[in-house]
Amino acid sequence: MSDKHIVIVGAGLVGTLNAILLAKRDFKVSVYEKRQDPRKQSGSCGRRTTNLALSSRGMKALRHVGLAEEIAPYQVPMFARMVHEVGGRMHALNYGRKEQFILSTQRNKLNEILLNAAEKFPNVTCFFGHKLIDCDLQTGNLKFLHNGGTVHVQADVVFGNDGAHSTIRRQMMTCSLMDVMQSYVPYGYIELPVAKTKHNEFAMDPHYLHLWPRDDFMMLCTANWDKTFNIVLFMKFETFAKLKTEKEAVDFFRTHFPDALALVGEENLRASFPTWNPYPMVTIKCSPYHIEDKVLIMGDAAHAMLPFLAQGVNSGFEDCMILNDLLDLHRNDFAIALPEYSRNRKLDAHAVCDLTLYNFLEMRQLVNTKTFRLKKRLDNLIHTLIPNHWVPLYSMVAFTDTRYHLCKKRKQQQNQILNCILVFGTVVFLLFVTSILCVLFEHALL
Ligand code: FAD
Questions:
Q1: Is 146 in the pocket of ligand 1 (CB under 6 A)?
Q2: For the purposes of burial, counting CB atoms within 10 Å of the CB of 187, is it exposed (0-12), middle (13-18) or buried (19 or more)?
């Protein structure tokens, strides 16, 4: 075993995958997590959604560590978005080609599988109920709160996998030249469960991400492996605040989401109302992600993003794979790998944060417009005709490894071309109609 002691702060999804990859390199790995062991707690994901969508980047990492098969029973494939209009009409928008899908995945189960896999390594130890409260990142001395007392730990390398409100990142800001940008949108979210039917079946087709876009707010719903669903309602905090009573909440659903009200059940909606406490969503862009050969932040700690492109975990897992490749390349030399990681990753991490903001607009508003739907069809048609040269944005992000900054750049180029085609098509159509009218008019005069 290598004599380097690696400390990972945070045993979320990214921290546990990181622990597995570093353990395979024979380092002594200690994972410190402020929560109690989630495998011993009942069900709750805290502020996190019950399920999340994994796509190509996330699944590639799970295949790499041999866990894709173990999580498969807890996943449901989703091939398209199913848009629910207020009047009850529904229409599907494929994610990519017909055979391409993303996977609705049980968050707790994934965390449990990763933790079990990490703890199978004799060189990994997980410490739960240890909250990092202070650290000296130059010396690697970390101070944790545990059972009312403090525990000091000495690390050779520290990984900050401690989420969007990272203590490690906060500490890095005080002792290195680090740029950090934090922003909030005025939207929050709540989660509502949908039970299975009395015949023990899914209440809707589980192979869609169901979407209720209502311009200023939106709701989405994804299936769980146990035949239940979870709805997430995204809305401005001020709109949430206007709903003062259970009756107002039910009326709101009856007006905007009548079919979803039937799914949740009026009684259940009323019962859940007192617990509605919308969670905020933060975006973090920062750089660099490392200090010398001592510290690296990854996952939400480095690039928390809005959830609308379903890339938080996917990009966090990709972080771990990129570091893994760099450590291969540089023979475990952190002094070379960490700065190179920071240099390479910044463009992509910033780009994916920007793309999630665009996708929010697309999901809650644009999908309601005819122009968008026409553009989407055109986008898919061109992709079918020249698949190697034209890939729609969502497909690039979800079904390929294309670097996020290239996805963003290509999206802008493709969008300009689509706009030109639409303008050109409209002009040709108008000229055609005008000339027909002229001919008819001439005939009428004769
Ligand atoms: P976290 O999951 O936040 O884990 C950090 C861990 O560090 C936690 O266990 C925490 O307890 C621990 N910790 C924090 N501070 C300390 C401390 N001081 N000491 C010790 N431990 C500490 N992503 C997708 O890929 N697909 C999706 O469909 C998707 N849907 C989402 C829906 C919503 C509504 C939201 C909000 C996010 C969604 N995401 C999705 C994003 C995804 O949840 C996050 O990107 C992901 O959880 C980040 O993982 P992480 O391990 O970096 O951080």
A1: no
A2: buried
